[in-house]
Amino acid sequence: MFTPEQVKPFITHADPLVSNAAIRFLAETYKYPQDISALVLEKLVSAPHKEDVYLHLAGAFPQTKVTVQAMLHLLNAGLVTGNARVFLSRMLLGSDPELLKPVLPQIKTLDEDWYEEAAERVRVSDLSSEDVLRLFNEETRKNSGLDYGDIDYDKLDFLLSELIERELLQPRETMDELQDLYMKEPESIRTIYLIQAASKLKIAYVLPLLYDALKSDNDLLAEQAADALVRMGSDEVIEYLVKMYNEETDGFLLLAIADVFARILLPSSEEALIALLEKEDHFTRIAKLADGLCRLGSESAVPVVQELIKIGYDKDYVELKESIYVSCVMQGRALPELDQWRREIAEEDEARAKKLRG
After folding, report:
1. CA–CA dist 79, 86 (Å, integer)
2. Which own/partner pairs from 165-172 qualify as long-range (CB within 8 Å, at least 24 positions apart)?
3. The pTM is what?
4. Residue by residue, what is the 3-state secondary structure of 22-58?
């Protein structure tokens, strides 16, 4: 099974398929080595096509004075354009306010809107704890009446991180409010953020609520429950999700559970995927479970996926050839099929691109 330290160096790998998989692994497992952003920026500088680097997954990675200055240089020099520039700005503006404060004049010369957001983060960081808590309460209640697409998630994320860093959320009070809100307004944005808070605070007794929320027809609520379960990641979580997988019949829920397994870095998670795959007979779920094993870096995935590539699998849902290729590269396994798989992946990507171009 992969560890964050094992995967981290592959961020700068020459093959974008491998480097992006490394970024995705660290982002989705919530494992952020301190130098992760420096490696992402190193990859960005060397990448011939900047827009292909998975910067959209790097917004929560920790920054340093050096990476902040590096991002400012890239943005000032016009070396990053289009969506890559937008995502790089999200990395910059997600920096700790203490890092943003001395560079506010530089940000202002780049973009007035960026400056206003950065200045607001600095302002909020200087507020008293009581004012930060009041502002969080106001923002969650104000945003609860909006469509999900109109919600200021960046501001809410920052306010929540401030509350947690200042230890302003008490576990019992947080859970009492969350349980009450979940009964009355399960899909409100305040409920969503209290779920985040409970999982980041590692409140063990939130787990039954998370298991229930994972079944929700509301995509945002179900996604937040899945993310929270990954953050809570424990053998207890794995054990319950295995039970749920064996008892539930909803296909989308089973795929969501399989995805959670692929993001929790525990031996029990790998064991669960192997056990479930051995008895799974659904075409799509077989591919999903096998993909999860590849993402975890399980050696057990290799013979299984080799066989699935030969006999066929649900290519419309997941591309196992890419999954096993990346997994083998990171494991250092030199299979004879690797070069052939990489050529076929490139050919299939080109065919899709031509189809899109008409």
Report:
1. 12
2. 166/129, 166/132, 168/129, 168/132, 168/133, 169/197, 169/201, 171/198, 171/201, 171/203
3. 0.95
4. HHHHHHHCCCCCCCHHHHHHHHHHHCCCHHHCCHHHC
Taking 90 as the threshold, does the pLDDT of residue 142 lie above it? no
In sequence order, the 6+-apart residues with CB closer than 8 A to the CB of 53 are: 16, 19, 20, 23, 40, 43, 44, 47, 84
Reported as a single tens digit per residue, the pLDDT across 75-92 is 999 999 999 999 999 999
Whether the CB-CB separation of 242 and 276 falls below 8 Å is answered with: yes
Contact 293, 314 (CB under 8 A): no
For the beta carbon of residue 182, count every other beta carbon within 10 angstroms.
19
For 200, the token pair is 């980041």
Q: Of 131, 149, 153, give the one whose Cα is nearest residue 140.
A: 153
In this predicted model, what pLDDT tens digit does every residue of 298-319 receive, in sequence order?
A: 999 999 999 999 999 888 889 9
CB 27 within 8 A of CB 20: no
Q: Give the residue among 14, 21, 270, 325 at the shortest CA–CA distance from 6.
A: 21
